[in-house]
Amino acid sequence: MVFPIHKNELRKFIPLSLIFFCISYNQSLLRGIKDMLILIDGETSTLYYLKLFCVMPALIIFAIVYGNLSTKFNREGRFYIILIYFILFFSIFLIFILPNQETFKLTKFTSNLFISYPKLSGFWEIIKNWHFSLFYIHAEAWGSYALGIAFWTLANDITNINQSKRFYSILSISSNIGGIIAGLSLSYFFKGNYKISLVIAILLMFISIIIFKILSRDIRQNPLLYELDDNEKRAKKLKLSFIESIKHLINSKYLMLIAFIVISYGICISLFEAIWKNNLKIYSLGDKDYLASIYGQQMYYIGITSILLSIFLFPTILKKGWRLMAYFTPISFLFSSLVFFSFCFFQNKILIISNFLNTTPLGLSIVIGLVNVIFIKACKYSFFDTSKESAYIPLDEESKVRSKAAVDGVSLVFGKGLGAILVTVLSIIVGNGIDGIKYILAFFILLFLILWMFGINSLYKKFKKLGGDLRG
Fold this sequence. Notes:
Blueprint: H1 10-41, H2 44-70, H3 75-97, H4 101-104, H5 107-116, H6 121-128, H7 130-157, H8 161-189, H9 194-221, H10 231-237, H11 242-250, H12 253-284, H13 288-320, H14 322-345, H15 351-356, H16 361-392, H17 397-401, H18 403-430, H19 438-465
Helix pairs in contact: 1-7, 1-8, 1-9, 1-13, 2-6, 2-7, 2-18, 3-7, 3-9, 5-6, 7-18, 8-13, 8-16, 11-18, 12-16, 12-18, 12-19, 13-14, 13-16, 14-16, 14-19
């Protein structure tokens, strides 16, 4: 046995780890670049107009297209289509759009709109920088489809529940290493150089396809080793469109509960980052190098923290069972939020601390917010994702394969979209931007954290009935 992996499982585990590394590296890198492109020239509110009016509708369209593809292509074909599509888009952006980014800006077209309707300036930024908005949409889609669907559908198809409790925690380490290297690349090597960043990202997409092709050949030659003797036959019979997948999701309380906890996380992280990124925008004044440093550090330390959690804490949590593993993220989120908001809401009272550290209360809130974002996302990758993916494994093939697109492809984006609705509507009603509604946003974060934990408790009862508890 190598770590908790048997030697005869390495032919499955090593390719999965390499694909996970490549996809996770790109996810971290693209996530940093998409925010930087918007924040350097635009407002923080633009991010939430984007999530509401662009990302959420676009990913619903992606989900419909994916649902239709699922009726015509097998798992291998869908993986290739997803990766090749992203290769084409990011190549076009790299070759044609990025070198001519100023030419593509619709500055003249939107100038009067900014003057006539200043409260909607965040929305006009989307139109003005439509090419960056398009990049933002595809960077979000990469996380949902390349990672959330293409990779995890593959992993869940060839991994049984006994293997998952050994595989997934170690697999997360390869993902975290990808995040660490992406963070170092953005902060120290590329330093906001989008061209080099995208060249590396596209190269890793090609590498993922090559590794997947080698793995697929081995799966076809040795189906029994990959648990595909019956699963493949059943999967071929499943020809559900996206609408049928949604109906199946709605009719399954179990799947609805999985969707609910994903939505709850999406809302909470969206609202939390709204406040932190607003402070970051004000403090950085759109400085490209500073933003690259912050986002790079975020990726790097998320990876480091996730690995430490996976090695030293995950085995202990796993022994206590699935429920504690699922609870760990919202409980950590709750304590992190209390610390962050204490610094945000009582800045005048911590003036002595900020002076002692030779910074400002706003600067200190940036650091505290960064630390909390790092810890929350590290918990998400180490515990939340593993518990969520494990919840699929006891399901029948129809629920596991087809409804996953509806849950993972839409739920997280839907949650972030609901967060964006709250931020956008409240900003317009209350005025004074995100800074004027931070107390209200803090209340909603607390509310959805509580609802999230209730959802976990309900899901656990059903998960246990299916015989899916991961107690080690």
